[in-house]
Design a protein that fits this description.
Helix content: 25-40%
Family: Belongs to the aminoglycoside phosphotransferase family.
Shape: globular
Structural class: alpha+beta
Low-confidence stretches: none
Pfam family, one: APH
Protein name: Aminoglycoside 3'-phosphotransferase
Keywords: Antibiotic resistance, ATP-binding, Kinase, Nucleotide-binding, Transferase
Radius of gyration: 18 Å
CATH topology of the largest domain: Aminoglycoside 3'-phosphotransferase, Chain: A, domain 2
CATH class of the largest domain: Alpha Beta
Number of domains: 2
Mean pLDDT: 94
Length: about 260
Amino acid sequence: MTLILPDPLRRVLPAARWEAVTHGESGAGVWRSQRYVVKVQARGGLPASTLLQERERLRWLAGRVPVPAVVGYEVTPEHEYLAMTRLPGLPMSDPDALLHPERVVSLLARALRELHALPVRECPFNMTLPVMLRLARERVAAGLVDEEDFDDERLGNSAAEVWGELTRTHPEGEDLVVTHGDACLPNLIVSGEYVEGFVDVGRAGIADRHADLALAHRSLIRNLGAEHAERFLDTYGRAFVDERKLAYYRLADEFF
């Protein structure tokens, strides 16, 4: 498979050998060269986020937390294209990064605390519970929920059944912060002792902090085991953690 760029991006990006990236679950095709990354997403349907939304979030986050710089955005009748700089380093999920589990746990907790400390009043992106529920409902109605990708405890259930559980069990209040929206290990880039940045920020916005904590905790269980996942919650701060909300936001992620 070959990356074919629209003319405006070809004029901006230098000629390069593009490599397809296989990790991650953003729903977009991802290509990288030595210096740049290009995401390609089909237009139409009801994606959890469009690349235009990701571009706007990258622009807002720039200078607040480390993220790639936007190089260009283009639309054709069939696709969206988002070009950005490539961050140095490895995804936290890379086997070489996982050789140092204590470092991964510490860096992940510190990066999320830094993101969650941004002033909510300055963030223009609303991903609060009513918005999330509306997006989930739209995806169920459009038949876009992948029932075969449900977590083990929900395999065999229909999207409508899981939607019913989501609406019945939602928490009464929200602990609102600026969230990443998909805080899994592949979406943080590390280099040595540093987090070089967040990627795949198309769902970033104001939401309950557990929207991030739940997915980070689950990702650590899958990549490093439950002991390290629990140490992450300790490092982030147990005073902020509600176990029921962790379960709820894992449930909510089934729709995206």
